[in-house]
Each structure stands twice: as C-alpha cells, then as structure tokens.
C-alpha cells in the first residue's frame, strides 16, 4: 500500500503524519511514478504551517519536487513509457512513495544526472533559472545581491550568475555558510549576523550598489534590500522565510530611486509546456557541463521528515536536502 506524509491540521513539524494511501492507477494523459528521491524546500514549510493555503483543501501532502521511475502510463500518453527516469516540480504532493501525475508535468532525466540530483534541483534549479535568465536577465558586468547564499537556490544561483559574468554578492548567517557560498561562485559574502549588509554592499560596490537583489528572506531583509539597489534597480522577492512583508507606501520606491519590485513564482514561469522544457533543459545543461555543481548535504528517510523540517527551519541545513522514500 502506498505511503505518504499528510498534514491534517496546520502546525509545526509534528503536524506531518506518515500514513497509508489507497493505490491508484493513471487515467488518460496521466503517469504513475514511483519516487526514488524527493526534494525538501521552504515552500513545503509554508504549506505545512498554512502560510500558503492549500488549493485542494485539507489534508494536504506537502512536497514540491521529486524524481523517480515511470511504472505505468494511462491512455493517450506520448513520450513516456514504463522504466523511464523522470523528474518534476509541483507545488504540492511529492511527499509520498508513488503518485499519479499529468504526463505534461514530467521531464526526462538525462543520463548524466542522478535521480538524487534531479530531485534536488527541479524546484530550486529552475527557480535560479527563471530568476537569472528571465526575471532579470543577468549579463556580464552586472552586480547582483543574493540573500541566503548558502541555501539550495543560493548555491545554484551563485555558480550560474558567476558563469554569466556577474559580480556576485551574497549574504549568509554563519562563518561556515559564508565559506560555503564563497566556494560556489560568490565574489563576496556578508555575514548578516555580524555585519550590516547594506553598508557592506555600499562598500564593496564603492557606492554604486546593485542592479538586482534576489530576496527569499522577506520581512527581515526587505527594507535593506531596497537600500542595496542602484536607481531603477530591481528587487525580485521570491520567498518570505522570515515572515510576510507588511503593507508599505509605494512612494518609497520613488524616493529610493524609481525602483522596481516584483514577486515572481516558478509555477507561473513554467506553466506552459514549452517553458517547462526550456527551463529544465537549461538547468540540466549547466549541471551536466559542471558549470553548476549540486551539493546534497542532508538526506533523511521520508518517514523522518519532521526532523528534516525542524533542521530546515532551524537554519541547520546547507545546500540541498533530499528525502528517501
């Protein structure tokens, strides 16, 4: 009988329950995938706590990315067959050992990428892809600031942005994380617990500041992020791990230099099949070529996901974390 992690009522890590699910078969246009590895992301915490409401109601199965093997295909499925290695990212539903998915949400895993790598990069890596290549297309000579540089998205983004020719500045919360980020493409990394990151960005850039700031932290960094931008610079706010940003006066953007702010999300950027395929192909290409190296630093059994969430929220994880069904 299939197993899954379900949340019946919002709460802490203990709200996740490991339980049986009824077996299912794929319908028309669907594929049954047996998971081999599942990614862990802050997005999962948001759905567990209720910060992001579940579009399907409760109970909810968290989990936004995974890799596995096709077990069975439904009527009319083209391009996938039993035995194919596949990966995907969705907002929910990955914390299980097998599941039925629409075939058009899946991509093939290239031979040069392992299942664990694929599970660790679908959400985080394609997030880095759309941020660096589409939200603000980073080019040679740009200066960027990326918060949470030692996190899963941050380590991918640092390497990729450096390859694109940018000067890459990051923030991290400990000396160990600073060193980790410096080893993954960052030119400068600021320990925000001991340094004022706004003052340090001004010093590093000799007052020119940044073309773009990528911020997944939210409440704690928002004001400072705006102060790190040059006139007409862009703040890409793609998460809120420290909390929701309160309402603010849009006139502040004018006062600080005609700034731009956007709140993008991956699932809009890959909603069309062509965009999904292009984003995944770009990601797999830089990983296969060794431009972006994937560091999986934590592995937990799926049944131990409560500990994984506690460690993630406690800032005890670095790089990518995967769950093993």
TrEMBL record:
Enoyl reductase (ER) domain: residues covered: 11-323
GO cellular component: cytosol
SMART domains membership: PKS_ER
GO molecular function: mRNA 3'-UTR AU-rich region binding; NADPH binding; quinone reductase (NADPH) activity; zinc ion binding
Superkingdom as given in the UniProt entry: Bacteria
Listed InterPro entries: ADH-like_C, ADH-like_N, ER, GroES-like_sf, NAD(P)-bd_dom_sf, QOR-like, Quin_OxRdtase/zeta-crystal_CS
Keywords linked to the UniProt accession: NADP, Oxidoreductase
PROSITE patterns: QOR_ZETA_CRYSTAL (PS01162)
CDD domains: QOR2
Record protein name field: Quinone oxidoreductase
């Amino acid at each position: 009988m299939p197993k899954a992690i379900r949340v019946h009522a919002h709460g802490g890590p203990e709200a996740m329950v490991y339980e049986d699910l009824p077996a299912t078969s794929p319908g028309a246009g669907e594929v049954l995938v047996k998971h081999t590895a599942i990614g862990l992301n802050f997005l999962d915490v948001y759905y567990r706590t209720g910060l992001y409401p579940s579009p399907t109601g409760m109970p909810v199965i968290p989990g936004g990315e995974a890799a596995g093997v096709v077990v069975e295909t439904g009527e009319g499925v083209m391009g996938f067959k039993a035995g194919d290695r596949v990966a995907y990212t969705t907002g929910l539903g990955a914390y299980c050992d097998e599941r039925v998915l629409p075939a058009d949400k899946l991509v093939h895993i290239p031979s040069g990428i392992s299942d664990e790598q694929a599970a660790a990069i679908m959400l985080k890596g394609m997030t880095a892809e759309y941020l660096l290549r589409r939200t603000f297309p980073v080019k040679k000579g740009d200066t960027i600031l990326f918060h949470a540089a030692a996190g899963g998205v941050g380590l991918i983004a640092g390497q990729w942005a450096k390859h694109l020719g940018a000067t890459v500045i990051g923030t991290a919360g400990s000396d160990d994380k600073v060193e980790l980020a410096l080893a993954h493409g960052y030119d400068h990394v600021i320990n925000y617990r001991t340094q004022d990151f706004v003052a340090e960005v001004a010093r590093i850039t000799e007052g020119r500041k940044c073309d773009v700031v990528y911020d997944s932290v939210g409440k704690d960094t928002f004001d400072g992020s705006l102060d790190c931008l040059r006139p007409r610079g862009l703040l890409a706010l793609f998460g809120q791990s420290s909390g929701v940003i309160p309402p603010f006066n849009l006139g502040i953007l004018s006062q600080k230099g005609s700034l731009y702010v956007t709140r993008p999300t991956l699932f809009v950027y890959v909603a069309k099949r062509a965009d999904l395929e292009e984003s995944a192909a770009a990601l797999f290409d830089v990983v296969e070529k060794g431009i972006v190296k994937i560091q999986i630093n934590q592995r937990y059994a799926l049944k131990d996901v409560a500990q994984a969430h506690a460690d993630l929220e406690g800032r005890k994880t670095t790089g990518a974390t995967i769950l093993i069904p």
